[in-house]
């Protein structure tokens, strides 16, 4: 598979400006990469400095063993094989292979990290990795093997592919090859690139869904003739959390053209507390994306080659605690707003809120959209499970030398798993809201919300007799992808 078949320009890899959407675009074949000269220069300077420094003092992984073996010096007779042994011994993952897009995301992230300087690997590796990415090559990456302190097994697999000792899983044309020097082996694999790549994709996908969730809530509010009072500017000036204010402002903009037709003095929490519950998800997402973006563009290397200071620093920047804790918080907030979406869905099957038959059914004895609640609650149950903080775990490894683990890799994986579950919840609510408005013979007044309704109206089946609803849910999930442009949150 040749990557980057769309007309968008390449993502420039410079070690300092990579974003989550760019990682997603390259990983999914929507863009190519191009390495900037500055990145090659930075990597080359670190490479030369690493060789110089290693000739003067002990450097972890270059002139010593790794883990508890850091006390073992590597003699000249062992040096040519030391790096190869690291690749072979650390390529020890297990379980099903990760999706190719996740392996590509890993390669993109590692390429950008190397371009930041600080690793000390051969700069020739940058062009080889870029070529591999652009031609769709991915290494086989097993699911199990990392705990948030370095994706050693995943990157060792990539190293063996580059050396020709292991087959690439996907790719088009001649296999990318590079005789990575023994001294560069640890420098290549000592990274959280797979964890960060997966985190970038999750943040990118959730950013769209969190914005789409505001549009869906506005359609539901219109369908139940809900009160506008909970979104008044004065309310949110009185409790000025940033995400809450942005969500309330977006709701005001979406429903501004609607004629006031308030049916109740107070609505259920699904409407009345929407900014207060969805706002934390927006804030948590913004924080998480900021954390991940900083890590994407950092030289989180151990040891770190300090070119300017002509020094090497053994350090703990490999520990991805920031990433894991940020995503733990995001999943908790996501569960809260998903539960509120399911609560709004509950109002959309009630005659007192819609003026329709129970479950928006064709007849009083029909089931209508009854099962949408089951579907949504099934997904909410998974979101509750995914919300368990990964940071509550710990491990002591390598004969006690590596005595802490934040399990950020597991936090990232749970966040990725939360994406399709949250999409199902929103798709269920959207299907119900659009059907209610259709059956009421109503549609939003001209504006962004009207456009949102029109897109869904064109995509969803208009029949109201009892029938399978899985096609509606699939169509609604696709429609959600068009909603983020309607509301910035």
Describe what is shown at a glance:
The chain is mainly α and 489 residues long. Helices cover 54% and strands 4% of the residues.
Descriptive notes:
- The chain is mostly helical.
- It folds into 2 domains: 181 residues, Fumarase/aspartase (N-terminal domain) (Fumarase C, Chain B, domain 1, Orthogonal Bundle); 266 residues, Fumarase/aspartase (Central domain) (Fumarase C, Chain A, domain 2), CATH 1.20.200.10.
- Helices cover 54% and strands 4% of the residues.
- The chain has a two-stranded parallel ribbon with strand order 1-2.
- Helix 1 crosses helix 4, helix 4 crosses helix 8 and helix 10 packs across helix 12.
- It starts with 10 loop residues before the first strand and ends in a 9-residue tail after the last helix.
């Amino acid at each position: 598979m040749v990557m980057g078949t769309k007309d968008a320009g390449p993502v420039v890899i410079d070690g300092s400006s990579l974003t989550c959407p760019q990682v997603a675009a390259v990983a999914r074949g929507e863009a190519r990469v191009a390495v900037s000269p500055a990145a090659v220069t930075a990597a080359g300077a670190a490479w030369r400095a690493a060789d110089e420094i290693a000739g003067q003092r002990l450097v972890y992984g270059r002139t010593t063993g790794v883990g508890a073996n850091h006390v073992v010096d590597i003699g000249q007779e062992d040096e040519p094989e030391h790096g190869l042994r690291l690749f072979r011994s650390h390529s020890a993952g297990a379980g099903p292979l990760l999706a190719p897009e996740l392996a590509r995301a890993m390669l993109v992230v590692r390429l950008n990290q190397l371009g930041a300087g600080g690793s000390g690997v051969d700069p020739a590796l940058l062009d080889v990795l870029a070529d591999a990415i652009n031609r769709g090559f991915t290494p086989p990456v097993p699911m199990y093997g990392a705990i948030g302190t370095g994706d050693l097994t995943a990157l060792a697999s990539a190293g063996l592919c580059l050396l020709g000792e292991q087959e690439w899983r996907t790719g088009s044309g001649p296999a990318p090859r590079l005789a990575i020097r023994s001294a560069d082996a640890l420098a290549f694999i000592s990274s959280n690139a797979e964890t960060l790549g997966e985190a970038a994709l999750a943040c990118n996908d959730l950013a769209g869904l969190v914005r789409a969730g505001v549009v869906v809530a506005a359609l539901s509010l219109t369908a139940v003739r809900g009160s506008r009072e909970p979104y008044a500017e004065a309310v949110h000036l009185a409790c000025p959390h940033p995400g809450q204010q942005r969500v309330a402002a977006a709701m005001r903009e979406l429903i501004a053209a609607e004629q006031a037709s308030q049916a109740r003095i107070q609505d259920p929490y699904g409407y009345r507390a929407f900014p207060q519950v969805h706002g934390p998800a927006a804030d948590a997402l913004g924080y998480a994306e900021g954390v991940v973006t900083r890590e994407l563009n950092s030289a989180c290397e151990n040891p770190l080659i300090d070119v300017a200071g002509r020094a090497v620093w053994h350090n703990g920047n490999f520990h991805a605690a920031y990433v894991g804790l940020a995503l733990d918080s995001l999943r908790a907030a996501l569960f809260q707003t998903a539960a509120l979406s399911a609560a709004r869905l509950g109002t959309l099957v009630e005659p007192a809120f819609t003026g329709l038959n129970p479950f928006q059914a064709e007849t009083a004895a029909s089931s209508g959209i009854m099962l949408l609640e089951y579907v949504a609650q099934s997904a909410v149950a998974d979101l509750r499970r995914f919300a368990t903080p990964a940071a509550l775990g710990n491990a002591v490894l390598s004969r006690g030398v590596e005595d802490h683990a934040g399990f950020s890799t597991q936090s990232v994986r749970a966040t990725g798993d939360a994406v399709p579950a949250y999409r199902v919840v929103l798709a269920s609510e959207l299907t119900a809201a659009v059907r209610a408005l259709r059956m009421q013979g109503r549609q939003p007044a001209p504006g962004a919300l009207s456009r949102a309704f029109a897109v869904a109206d064109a995509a969803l089946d208009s029949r109201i007799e009892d029938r399978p609803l899985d096609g509606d849910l699939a169509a609604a999930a696709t429609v959600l992808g068009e909603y983020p442009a309607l509301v910035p949150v």
